[in-house]
TrEMBL record:
Biological classification of the source: Bacteria, Pseudomonadati, Bacteroidota, Chitinophagia, Chitinophagales
Protein name (Swiss-Prot/TrEMBL): Exodeoxyribonuclease III
Site label Important for catalytic activity, positions: 218
InterPro entries: AP_endonuc_1, AP_endonuclease_F1_BS, AP_endonuclease_F1_CS, Endo/exonu/phosph_ase_sf, Endo/exonuclease/phosphatase, ExoIII-like
EC number: 3.1.11.2
Binding site for Mg(2+): 7, 34, 147, 149, 247-248
Residues the UniProt record annotates as site (Interaction with DNA substrate): 248
Biological source species: Panacibacter ginsenosidivorans
Listed PROSITE patterns: AP_NUCLEASE_F1_1, AP_NUCLEASE_F1_3, AP_NUCLEASE_F1_4
C-alpha cells in the first residue's frame, strides 16, 4: 500500500500538477494540505475522474486538508483537532481508510516568533500531542502525516544557522516534535534513511530548488502496529520542478499489506 502526503499550496491553482502526479505515481491514499479553497470549491469531480474518493475540510483563502483513497471511500472520524472548540482553522482531518486510521494535518507555521502566531502553533502542537497519545492508546494501526512545519534536526534544513530564530526551527518547536515522536511513533523517512540529506520543501525565492536549499517539514509518523510494515519511502522531488507547481514535493511511504 502506497501512502503519500502533499502540500499542494492551492488545490485549484495546482490541479493540473496534482492530477499529473496522481496518474504517474498512483498512490493508494493521499493526504493533501493547504487546499486554499472553501468546502464548495473542492474539485471533487476532477479527483473522482482521476480514480479517487475524497473527504476534505476547506477554508476560504487559507489552510484546508483532504484525504483521497483509490480503493475504499475514507470513513471520516473527525475534521478538527480536539482541545479547542474556538479554533476555526481547517488544519486536521482523520479517517479510517484501508484498515488504517489516517490523521492528516497542516500544523501552523508560527511566524513571526515570538508572538501570537507562535503561541498558537505551540498550543496546537500540545493539542496534537495529547490527541496522539490517545490514538496510541487505542491500539489501532495509526498514521499521522502532513506538513508539520518543523525541521526536527539540523540534518533537515539547509544552512541551519540561518534558521535558529524561525518558528519552524526554534528549540521549543523541535523539542515539541521530539516529545511527540517519543510517545512511541516512528519517523518513517528517518527509519529508512537515518543519515541522508532529504528535503520536502524548497522556497520559490533565490533559486532554492535549483540549489537544493531545502527543508524537511513533511513527515510520516507511524504507530507501533504499522512501523514494522514499512518497506519503502521517498520524495517525488521532480514534481517540485514542474511548471506552476507547489513549493512542496509529494512524500510517500509503502507498507506491506
Amino acid at each position: 500500500m502506497k501512502i503519500a502526503t502533499y502540500n499542494v499550496n492551492s488545490i485549484n491553482a495546482r490541479l493540473p500538477v496534482l492530477l499529473r502526479w496522481l496518474k504517474e505515481a498512483t498512490p493508494d491514499i493521499v493526504c493533501l494540505q493547504e487546499l486554499k479553497a472553501i468546502q464548495e470549491n473542492f474539485p471533487e469531480q476532477a479527483i473522482k475522474d482521476a480514480g479517487y474518493h475524497a473527504i476534505w475540510h476547506g477554508q476560504k483563502s487559507w489552510n484546508g486538508v483532504a484525504i483521497l483513497s483509490r480503493n475504499n471511500e475514507p470513513q471520516k472520524v473527525r475534521r478538527a483537532l480536539p482541545g479547542d472548540d474556538d479554533d476555526t482553522h481547517s488544519r486536521y482531518i482523520e479517517a479510517h481508510v484501508n484498515g488504517l486510521l489516517i490523521a492528516c494535518l497542516y500544523l501552523p507555521n508560527g511566524n513571526p516568533a515570538p508572538g501570537p502566531k507562535f503561541d498558537y502553533k505551540m498550543n496546537w502542537f500540545q493539542r496534537l500531542t495529547t490527541h496522539a497519545a490517545q490514538l496510541l492508546k487505542s491500539g489501532e494501526p495509526v498514521l499521522i502525516t502532513g506538513d508539520f512545519n518543523v525541521m526536527p534536526t539540523e540534518k533537515d534544513v539547509y544552512k541551519p544557522e540561518r534558521w535558529v530564530d524561525d518558528a519552524l526551527f526554534r528549540p521549543e518547536v523541535r523539542a515539541a516534535f521530539k516529545t511527540l515522536v517519543d510517545q512511541g511513533w516512528t519517523d518513517a523517512i528517518r527509519k529508512l534513511y537515518p543519515d541522508e540529506t532529504i528535503y520536502t520543501f524548497w522556497d520559490y525565492f533565490r533559486n532554492a530548488y535549483e540549489r537544493n536549499a531545502g527543508l524537511r517539514i513533511d513527515h510520516f509518523l507511524l504507530s507501533p502496529q504499522i512501523s514494522n510494515r514499512l518497506i519503502a519511502a521517498g520524495v517525488d522531488r521532480q514534481v517540485r520542478g514542474w511548471e506552476k507547481t507547489s513549493d512542496h514535493a509529494p512524500v510517500w511511504i509503502e507498507l506491506k499489506d
